[in-house]
Amino acid sequence: MATASSRLANHHRGLNRPAPPPAPARVVTDGEKIARGVGAVGLAGVGLIHLLDVVDKFHETAYIGVLYLALIAASLVAAHRLIMVGDRRAWLLTGGLAAATFAAYAVSRTVGLPASSDDIGNWTEPLGLASLFVEGAVVALSAEMLLRFRRAS
Fold first, then answer.
1. What does the H/E/C string look like for 65-90?
2. What is the pLDDT of residues 29-51, one digit of tens each?
3. Which of 34, 85, 95, 135 is the Cys-Cys partner for 102 at CB 3.0 to 4.6 Å?
4. Burial level of 79, CB count in 10 A (0-12/13-18/19+)?
5. How far apart are CA 119 and CA 107, in angstroms?
């Protein structure tokens, strides 16, 4: 005895229907490709800056060293997604990660982090300034790209 699904399948076998057209792919411009590359390099820069300081942070305050490792890993994941996918979510992840890192630096220099008050007022550390520059640039680029996505939709 034929089941309902096999009867439905047999009912339509005689029709030659063309396959539905594929969903239109979003056109990626050369400018967007360049922006993805710049954003990924910026994220790699954030990761590198924190890699250069991670050993000292483990000696000073271990949990900050662990947060640095998490940031380095997250930067690599976000950079990969930005290059491979480059969608709105990738730019949100990229900008959010850079903004959170920027904010954590500001907190560490103003009120300090738990069990770590040594850096309060230390705004001129070279790696810290490099980090602020790169993170600020990544946030600005992410904001620009998110505005472009918004205008396009």
1. HHHHHHHHHHHHHHHHHHHHCCCHHH
2. 899 999 999 999 999 999 999 99
3. 135
4. buried
5. 10
